[in-house]
Amino acid sequence: MTIPRMVSVTGVKEWREGELRSVNDYLAAEEPLEIRVGDAPMSVTMRTPGHDIELAAGFLFTEGLVSGYSQIASVRHEANDNQNGANRVRVDLAPGVEVDSEALRRNFYTASSCGVCGKASIDAVRVLKITAPNRACTVDPEVLCRLPGQLRAAQQIFERTGALHAAGLFSTGGELLAMREDVGRHNAVDKVIGWALANDRVPLQDALMMVSGRAGFEIVQKALVAGVPVLASVSAPSDLAVNLAREFGMTLIGFLRGRRFVIYSGAERVTSGQPAG
Questions:
Q1: Which of 52, 87, 189, 223 could cysteine-pair with 228, CB 3.0–4.6 Å?
Q2: Same structural domain for residues 151 and 38?
Q3: CATH at residue 145
Q4: Would residue 114 show up in a list of annotated catalytic residues for this protein?
Q5: Could you tell me the residue range of the domain that residue 48 belongs to?
Q6: pLDDT digits over 72-110, tens only?
Q7: pTM summary value
Q8: What is the CATH number for 43?
């Protein structure tokens, strides 16, 4: 089996303390991945190779095309005339499962920086199969404060390149369950949700999700589809993301750094020491 090329090495010039020298630098790999449903092309996303099967499964689930892993008969790399199949994944659905033809016609291009950008309107973005996440799930603030350090410690590719986003799933006690890296923050989320699907953990009723970048609308949406009750980010959410989290009762936390964080929605799940109101 071919090992995914997640990192490459290139020669660069480094200026430091008044001296210019030649050194080698590590770069995060970025390649297109075509996702097909049967014979029909569904999407092309720019991603870091690796965990492509999880990415495809997670993508179909968070886009509302399948409601669970049981609706997927098989998912595999598929060769074409020009490549060895490393950049194409084919998903075959279980007998009797049909995908909305309009969803397939979207055939949108997902940029690595923002999955929403290629979609025609907010109506095309909004996945309707969302229910309120587990209201009984709670988390201690001390557990939240440990998540960024645990996520960063698990980011092996980031340590070499400094160029990848990460998404991690944690238990409410702070145990790291799964972590995935990618040049696209939405891809990292789809990969980790794809892992949860394959391991029969969806809906993620008692899990925390931590992302290394900002929490935009699409990240909140994908987490909600998977049933995540608590989503935390080291950076800021957008206003649309906050509105969606509040609508469905998700706990959304931003600026989780050191011993400070901001709760934008669902403060009742933070069990002690949370800011008033």
A1: 223
A2: no
A3: 3.40.140.10
A4: yes
A5: 31-125
A6: 999 999 876 555 568 899 999 999 998 776 666 554 444
A7: 0.84
A8: 3.10.20.10
